[in-house]
């Protein structure tokens, strides 16, 4: 059990640094997508931003429960074309976030390999191919 030990603090700090990189990547990609959406249709951009703000408000620990109702009302007020563009905007954001997560996983793997005593550039686990070579 690693309760309040220097090792636990070090692990937590390292995880926070790693998560910071992922959040930064997602934020950059989200901003770029936002610019593209706004250039294409500023009204759709405004709807997406409003839905995002309401979603954040609803998800907070002490969030406003009626924010979900407000989201539903906002979606119902959109025409079919707007709904299509808004849904594509969210789908594209999720695709970009998944891409950032895949990149992040590779970044973590490379970092782990670089900081280990791994031979042959293999994942540093004894039950892996590297363990079989020794």
Short description:
The protein has 134 residues and is mainly alpha-helical. Helices cover 78% and strands 0% of the residues. One of its GO terms (biological process) is carbon fixation.
How large is the count of helical segments? 5
The secondary-structure element order is: HHHHH
End-to-end distance, in Å? 31 Å
Low-confidence segments, ≥5 residues, pLDDT <50? none
What does this structure look like?
The chain has helices spanning 6-40, 42-59, 66-76, 80-114, 129-133. By secondary structure, it is mostly helical. The longest helix is centred in the first third of the chain and has 35 residues, at 6-40. It has one domain. It is built from 5 helices and no strands.
What is the strand and helix layout of this fold?
Blueprint: H1 6-40, H2 42-59, H3 66-76, H4 80-114, H5 129-133
Helix pairs in contact: 1-2, 1-4, 2-3, 2-4
Which features does this protein show?
elongated; Pyrv/PenolPyrv_kinase-like_dom; 134 residues
